[in-house]
From TrEMBL, chains A, B:
This is 2-nitropropane dioxygenase. It comes from the Bacteria. PANTHER family: 2-NITROPROPANE DIOXYGENASE (PTHR32332), MONOOXYGENASE RV1533-RELATED (PTHR32332:SF38). InterPro entries: Aldolase_TIM (IPR013785), NMO (IPR004136). Pfam families: NMO. SUPFAM superfamilies: Inosine monophosphate dehydrogenase (IMPDH) (SSF51412).
Amino acid sequence: MLPGMETELSRRLGVEHAIFGFTPFPAVAAAISRAGGFGVLGAVRYGAGDELARGLDWMEAHTGGRPYGLDVVMPAKKVGGVSEADVEAMIPDGHRTWVEDLLAKYGVPELAEGDRAGWRITGWMEEVARSQVDVALQYPIRLLANALGSPPADVVERAHARGILVAALAGSARHARHHQEAGIDIVVAQGYEAGGHTGEIATMVLTPEIVRAVDPLPVLAAGGIGSGEQVAAGLALGAQGIWLGSVWLTTTEAELPSRALTEKLLAAGSGDTVRSRALTGKPARQLRTEWTDAWEDPAGPGPLPMPLQGLLVADAVSRIQKYETPELLGSPVGQIVGRMDEERSVADVLDDLTRGFERAITRLNRIAGRE
Amino acid sequence: MLPGMETELSRRLGVEHAIFGFTPFPAVAAAISRAGGFGVLGAVRYGAGDELARGLDWMEAHTGGRPYGLDVVMPAKKVGGVSEADVEAMIPDGHRTWVEDLLAKYGVPELAEGDRAGWRITGWMEEVARSQVDVALQYPIRLLANALGSPPADVVERAHARGILVAALAGSARHARHHQEAGIDIVVAQGYEAGGHTGEIATMVLTPEIVRAVDPLPVLAAGGIGSGEQVAAGLALGAQGIWLGSVWLTTTEAELPSRALTEKLLAAGSGDTVRSRALTGKPARQLRTEWTDAWEDPAGPGPLPMPLQGLLVADAVSRIQKYETPELLGSPVGQIVGRMDEERSVADVLDDLTRGFERAITRLNRIAGRE
């Protein structure tokens, strides 16, 4: 049996360890839940509801009845009836030409018919996210997380009516209080060092600041965490659990689009990431590549705002992934990538986190003169 | 009696708590040592050796025989006989004019004769730092820390011959290994969120990375730490002690150059700092002000490299401090400034850190099922 890591929140959700694993891969999410953590499946790479339903059916068949959650990207502000085609039409031609020229420079081939959008971001469109939520609420998920902003009031209400807890990511105490006013149950404090969308306040400062700001709401610490000692640190900061995303990318269950990308992640150091607007239009930490450098170049057009940038680059990113263009190939990932230096199973990662946590507690007790 | 916080390193140095307090103010450094921590006096604002000697005489008279240390800024590379005047001559006239115009725009008065350089950085000149070390080695200091790069080999040797431990700050594992090869005894892992010179890797990731890189050398965690729960987090990450700088700025013993600056620090939030080259030429975290914004402005000349920038702005910073120009008034400080919201004595801060540490350990033991 693994050593315990129990908080009020982990007991409430019925999991052994207060470890929340966010991942776009159902096989990883299910393995996290089976190993005693709480798997959270990212919905953003699914299309509308029916496609997500297949993913959730799979989760039901593979989590062995253990609790799990879903992460959607749902804007609180209604933009009312804006379709993907409407957004596509807002992208300047100059940006499209610049992207094509960049791909040509690196010799990235075109996609074949039917290959389109291995990299998908349509989950960010409000109508897609809404149809995902409609589907998700028909499944026995225990948590609905919103990755960007507070979820809309009616969604919070419908989730609560089904006994589903609602979480939202925050990069500042102000965001966290806004979430609290929106009626959510859990705040994920996402530090500067995290992969994906981040603010500028580091986990060490952000976590206790948000814990104090939204007390008594439970807070999960996110950003820079990939070992048991870091789990202990995050919990020491007052969190009721740890939210990890990056570490699962190099698990054997992960389904990365390219072997070359796995190798790149395994080789990268903590200094090889950058907070860039290249992928989504908002600052998101990812591997630094010649792709992110090109978007920083003052001579280039620079990134468009969300959601335009994501639509602009969707095909380009798919092409780079499919043809494994080494200079451009990247992924959202946090500074913890420096520690991700071997492929392991999800169960081994969980085991390592809980055992490392135990060792850290023993060491702390010695320092405090208690053991 | 305060609860304990003992590591191998704190025992070796003969202090009760593994809390290392860096400060430019002798009254603060002495109070830290008297309260059971380890005070480290920053030498950079002193001039050559004789001026520093007065500071160290004062320390001897006020530390009550408790151990303390000194922090110098000594480049490892010899630049050979370069004087302050030589460096002054390398500053372009365009930069001087731009600074004068900026001060005029905000109506900052000239300094009176004799008021010069309340803000001093001459300690960064190699010959000044060397004369400081010559003086320091005649005092019973227990630690000599180098704030920028590895200390020169002969200095490490002379310090060791007197039983003085040598520490150096590092922002990456590569820097830390370089320090280790230079024969130092302690690495201070200075995270992105720290005040003053920082790299881009956050404390959560940097600390364990450096602990692993230089094992078995002891590592101090620095950056973002100002509460007992953050002390527990830093120690959980494998550090043998915590290095704090920012939190002492708003202690009652601190001798800030301006009351308005104290008020500004007390009012600032964690998002009110910026990593800027405006003060020294190297990226240093400080309050974000219209001064730092002006140096970021692409229409301006941008900062010069170290040590030119520090010399260029020394008088300007003194004038801003003396006349308390609200828009421009700033200070090096870390993201923890958001938590610095009341003036307290050094002893109260230490008390708060050790009691908060105890509470964090108790909570962690409960999570681990040990209490």
